[in-house]
Design goal:
The protein is mainly alpha-helical and about 325 residues long. The protein folds into two domains: about 5-185 and about 295-325, HUPs (Rossmann fold), CATH 3.40.50; about 205-290, Tyrosyl-Transfer RNA Synthetase. It is about 55% helix and about 10% strand. It has 13 helices and five strands. A three-stranded parallel beta sheet has the order 1-2-3. A two-stranded parallel ribbon has the order 4-5. The longest helix has 30 residues, at about 295-325. It starts with a strand and ends with a helix. The chain binds tryptophan. Tryptophan (TRP) binds near residues 7, 41, 44, 135 and 150.
């Protein structure tokens, strides 16, 4: 079985519908037929200042939501990055393999550091991609399911793996980016020309998995619609309605064309009520499951500890081979 690895940062109390449809849903699908490793990358979240209580809460909330959304501890290895110290060990080796100029060309680093300003941007932001390379190479992953914005980091990972292999002998599997389909690209429901995102959008435009059914119902009923009155998929003229059609279709499984027929002659109000119903009923059991998992913290920690233990044993084999090939005295 081919191995898959991906990571998600515990940077918010709740995932949103865009995270689920754009990434986690496909992680769930990849569990079948692959040996999947999914990592909550809490060390990566430290590249910006964090509040200790929030980091803890969000790490647990991320785990509970991943499980509630269908990541199964029987099928995949779900673990917390900081519980596997081998990530730091290999991270350092990767830093020593990376050119300063090469790291300076990472577009995510350039964007984030220029936003933060030279004085508040942390060194960890600069070395972030090398830690990410370690995340991937430790598990000898074949595929890395990520969004398009991560392509450059996966390319760097391949370069580093290839460089190490040719200098020190074959040690790492060269991973491939498995770019997640953007078919179900979900936009902000208040600002439907922008991607659904917690960092840029206002809360009213983001459908959160951990929100109460009542709150989500209200949000969707007040979603931004467009001029006209026909429920038609037309991204240029009707970005709001098109986005709601995409959301409905992704969750109900009905095609956009069927939905257009179903709502022919009905107004935006009826359509929004139907979308709200689909979203709320889809998320209701998921939220309930996540809440249940969070109420039994000991059990949740147990699942994570088991995942981390398995991850450590795989990761240690890679560290042994890496150190041996480097000439480290063992
Ligand atoms: N950088 C990724 C993101 O922001 C998160 C991440 C960290 C990751 N380590 C990884 C993704 C390893 C895939 C594989 O989305």
């Amino acid at each position: 079985m081919k191995r898959v690895l991906s990571g998600i940062q515990p940077t918010s109390d709740s995932f949103h519908l865009g995270n689920y449809l754009g990434a986690v849903k496909q992680w769930v699908e990849l569990q079948d037929g692959h040996d999947a490793f999914y990592c909550i990358v809490d060390l990566h979240a430290l590249t910006v200042e964090t509040d200790p209580a929030l980091l803890r809460k969000r790490t647990l909330a991320s785990a509970a939501q991943l499980l509630a959304l269908g990541i199964s501890p029987e099928k995949s290895t779900l673990f917390v990055q900081s519980q596997v110290p081998q990530h730091n060990q290999l991270g350092w080796i990767m830093e020593c393999m990376t050119g300063f100029g090469e790291a300076s060309r990472m577009t995510q680093f350039k964007d984030k550091s220029s936003k933060a300003g030279a004085d508040s941007a942390r060194v960890g932001l600069f070395t972030y991609p090398m830690l990410q390379a370690a995340d991937i190479l430790l598990y000898q992953a074949h595929y890395v399911p990520v969004g398009e914005d991560q392509r450059q980091h996966i390319e760097l990972t391949r370069d580093l793996a290839g460089r190490f292999n040719s200098r020190y002998g074959n040690t790492f599997q060269l991973p491939e980016a498995y770019i997640l389909k953007t078919a179900a690209k979900i936009n902000d429901i208040q600002e439907p020309t922008a991607k659904m995102s917690k960092s840029s959008g206002a809360v009213a435009g983001v459908i959160e998995i951990m929100d109460t059914p009542e709150a989500n119902l209200k949000k969707i009923k007040s979603a931004m619609t467009d001029a006209g009155r026909e429920v038609k998929y037309d991204v240029a003229e009707k970005p709001g309605i098109s986005n709601l059609l995409t959301i409905h279709s992704a969750l109900s499984g009905k095609s956009i064309a069927d939905l257009e027929n179903e709502f022919e002659g009905k107004g935006y109000g009826d359509f929004k009520s139907a979308v709200a119903e689909v979203v709320v009923e889809y998320l209701r059991p998921i939220r309930a499951k996540a809440v249940e998992l969070l109420e039994d913290e000991e059990h949740l920690l147990d699942i994570l500890h088991q995942g981390s233990e398995k991850a450590r044993s795989v990761a240690q084999q890679t560290i042994d081979a890496t150190y041996k090939n480097l000439g480290v005295v063992l």
